[in-house]
Design goal:
Elements: H1 2-18, H2 29-35, H3 43-54, H4 57-79, E1 89-95, H5 103-111, E2 116-120, H6 127-135, E3 138-142, E4 145-149, E5 153-159, E6 168-175, E7 178-186, H7 196-210, E8 217-222, E9 240-241, H8 242-246, E10 264-269, E11 272-279, E12 288-294
Parallel strand pairs: 1-2, 7-8
Antiparallel strand pairs: 1-12, 2-4, 3-4, 5-6, 6-7, 8-10, 9-10, 11-12
Helix pairs in contact: 1-3, 1-4, 3-4, 5-6
Length: about 300
């Protein structure tokens, strides 16, 4: 009985890993499962222990199969190191937390070495905005999202990504090396069984990117979509993910105490990512995503 259990569960785990994109959305449950996809690998040691108890070689081989699949899918992520080298722009994005009374302290620590910082869940005129206004000469807030920059900002406009009110923005930042079109977005939330609004806002974001012929584009924000969520196929490509290209490890950002997924992203095109990672954000339930880019 235990041998059969090991073989069946091993097959299910391997198929879920390798074929997750072929599984129907099931009303939004599958994308949420995909958000936790790397963690499915934790079943492999348990299966190996159970297989060892059976003293069955076929059971051990079966238990190894999902481990091999996991290694093929995520081994390069675990082993990847940042390419490093000189950069022209250091950027970051952070959901400061709408109820975070320490948001000013959080953004101060994150933004100290950055050229651009995008923030979400801002309180207009709150501690995070006040702190960032002191640190950066240029800024453009729109409701609960905003962009702060050491370089001039122009061509600004608020954006509605399908939620009925502006929770995103577009701006052009003029750096010494050239212009970069920057989008800051906080997309709709995704919950088990309730991803329709998030999916609609993802589609709206893709339409904006497709319609933009800028040479260099940055998309910063809380997209409420994990790197392994099928929804990211709508944005990567045409954009590249800084963490996937130049970060060490998975770069999980949520929840802050013990991150298990990555809804916060730095996506780009027309540039090269030289490093990427995460930074703590005092009082927020998110960690910040940061990256360095070369023109």
């Amino acid at each position: 009985m235990l041998k059969r259990f090991v073989v069946v569960v091993s097959a299910v785990v391997a198929l879920a890993l390798a074929g997750h994109q072929l599984i129907p959305a099931l009303g939004g449950f599958t994308p949420v499962m995909e958000s936790l996809l790397p963690w499915i690998g934790l079943t492999v040691p348990l299966l190996l222990v159970a297989a060892a108890l059976t003293r069955s070689t076929p059971a051990v081989v079966a238990a190894l199969v999902p481990g091999v699949v996991w290694a093929v899918m995520f081994g390069s992520t675990v082993l990847r190191s940042s390419p490093g080298g000189p950069h022209d722009l250091a950027v970051g994005t952070v959901n400061v937390g709408v109820t975070n009374g320490s948001s000013g302290e959080a953004v101060r620590a994150i933004a100290e070495d950055l050229d651009l910082l995008a923030a979400q869940e801002l309180t207009p005129g709150g501690p995070a905005a006040k702190q960032l206004n002191k640190m950066f000469p240029h800024h453009y807030p729109v409701g609960t999202v905003g962009l702060w920059s050491r370089h001039p900002i122009s061509e600004t406009r608020p954006l509605d990504v399908g939620m009925g009110w502006p929770r995103a923005l577009r701006a052009v930042v003029t750096t010494p090396k050239g212009k970069v079109t920057v989008y800051v977005m906080h997309l709709a939330s995704a919950r088990p069984g309730h991803t329709a609004s998030r999916d609609a806002s993802l589609a709206a974001a893709r339409r904006l990117i497709d319609a933009d012929d800028s040479k260099r584009i940055l998309l910063l924000g809380d997209l409420n979509t994990a790197t392994t969520d099928r929804g990211m196929r709508g944005l990567t490509p045409p954009l590249s993910d800084a963490q996937s290209v130049a970060g060490e490890g998975f770069g999980f950002t949520w929840p802050a105490e013990f991150p298990i997924t990555r809804p916060d992203h730095i996506l780009f095109k027309g540039m090269t990512a030289t490093s990427a990672g995460v930074a703590p954000a005092t009082g927020s339930d998110h960690r910040a995503a940061i990256a360095s880019l070369r023109f």
